[in-house]
Design brief:
The protein is of the alpha+beta class. The chain contains 18 helices and 5 strands. It folds into 3 domains: 157 residues, Globins (Globin-like, Orthogonal Bundle); 124 residues, Alpha-Beta Plaits, CATH 3.30.70; 85 residues, Arc Repressor Mutant, subunit A (Orthogonal Bundle). The protein has a 5-stranded mixed sheet, sandwiched between helices. The relative contact order is 0.07.
Length: 428
């Protein structure tokens, strides 16, 4: 496979053809070959001196690969000057893929190629000047060759790096999706394949707590856009600052689903850590106002993560712009009852409930506000009056009106409870 007629090598192909204008190109090649060791040493020195990323990298393969990659370019340039035909630059592609796998920054690799361009150009010009018959335009020709070579390898490296990065992201996405499905849908503990996947991911370690969070935008329709939904997931992931907590984040059923896990305690002799769900809620509360989130309670094993997921989905139903992050344990039993049974209760409300609602609306919500203030004041009329800013006799008058409408006296516990439930059921 060659690249002579393909982008990005057209410019390099033309530059190679023009090298025939150098009278004794073989002398240039021989000069470079005799100084190969010096050229390679300069390539290594200039890259380390000018690009901190190489020496600062904790991956030992980065410097080792760089020390081999420079000589590869020297040999390729000598081959090109001798044969003047392009190959497929496999060594550049392989190097770019390795850098992508190591998550080494692409800009550092491209900067190294620019540094190499300076070294090779200096030696090419010196080789031309040392020739018996340098030729009139020889320096311009080798300069064109050097820059076209650098452009070609930079373009090929960038293309291969991006392609490999996308491939790795797809693979990671598939693994993430598989792992999330196992955790949320449950699994058979006798399935060795699944157990191995969970063990390798660290989810079967002992003394762990887990919790689940589910998020969506305030406008649910936005989550139907895959690009928008993915940006929401990435934004949440970037915002979270839980250094010791493992998190698994992906899209599922048009929601961002997050599974968190952390050590419940270091050993049996140490105190347990703060509840994981509470820490997660604190972090998620820093996310922007456009996101609603439901969070489960802590669960002690992976087998209970499906139940935690259901808790998070339910908690999300209670989230709104006034309370963007809702934890399952913070939802009152009364609100849960209305959530699960409200629709059926609405079909069986007493006949007086509609008239009560109409009159309450005419009085700007005064009747309902009164019984709520009375309940919040532990059935103390004076405290309820103070909360509402009215005279206690006004409270009694409203109670009498409620008795006339409903037949229920709010001054007694059970009628008061029934009034509150029915009123809230209608308001939902």
């Amino acid at each position: 496979m060659t690249l002579e007629n393909e982008f990005p090598a057209k410019g390099l192909t033309e530059a190679l053809h023009k090298l025939s204008g150098i009278p004794k190109l073989s002398d240039v090649v021989n000069f470079l070959r005799s100084h190969t060791a010096e050229i390679n040493a300069q390539l290594s020195d200039v890259v380390i001196a000018e690009i901190p990323a190489f020496s600062e990298s904790r991956n030992p393969d980065v410097l080792a690969d760089m020390s081999l990659h420079g000589p590869d370019h020297t040999e390729e340039i000598l081959r090109l000057l001798t044969q003047r035909t392009l190959d497929d630059f496999k060594f550049v592609r392989d190097h770019a893929r390795r850098r992508a796998e190591h998550r080494f920054p692409l800009e550092a690799t491209l900067h190294a190629y620019r540094c190499g361009h300076k070294v090779f150009l200096r030696w090419l010009r010196e080789a031309v000047l040392g020739s018996d018959s340098p030729g009139k335009n020889s320096q311009e020709l080798v300069a064109d060759f050097a820059i076209e070579y650098t452009d070609t390898i930079s373009t090929i490296a960038a293309q291969e790096y991006v392609a490999q990065t996308r491939h790795l992201a797809d693979v990671a996405g598939d693994q993430r999706s598989q792992l999330l499905s196992i955790l949320l849908e449950g699994y058979d503990e006798s399935d060795g394949r699944v157990a191995k996947i969970l063990h390798n991911a660290g989810y079967l370690d002992r003394r762990q707590s887990f919790c689940v969070a589910v998020a969506r935008t305030v406008e649910p329709g936005e989550m139907l856009n895959p690009t928008r939904a993915r940006r929401v997931a990435e934004s949440i992931d970037e915002t979270l600052r839980l250094p010791t907590t493992r998190r698994l984040i992906d899209l599922r059923d048009n929601h961002v689903v997050m599974v968190f896990s952390d050590a419940r305690r270091i050993s049996g002799w140490t105190a347990p850590n703060k509840k994981l769900a509470s820490r997660v809620v604190g972090e998620l509360s820093r996310i922007g106002n456009a996101i609603l989130i439901g969070v489960s309670d802590d669960v002690p094993s992976t087998s209970q993560i499906p139940a935690a997921h259901r808790q998070a989905v339910m908690a999300l139903d209670f989230a709104d712009v006034t309370s963007r992050v809702v934890q399952c344990s913070d939802i009152s039993a009364r609100r849960l009852m209305l959530h699960f049974a409200g629709q059926e209760l609405t079909k069986m409300l007493p006949s007086w409930s509609e008239e009560f609602q109409q009159i309450n609306e005419k009085q700007n919500g005064a009747l309902l506000a009164t019984i709520r203030a009375y309940a919040n004041a532990n059935m103390n009329v004076l405290k309820a009056a103070d909360t509402l800013g009215v005279h206690p006799n006004t409270i009694y008058a409203r109670f009498q009106r409620i008795v006339e409408l409903t037949g229920l006296d709010p001054r007694s516990y059970h009628p008061l409870t029934e009034l509150l439930i029915i009123a809230e059921c209608r308001s939902n």
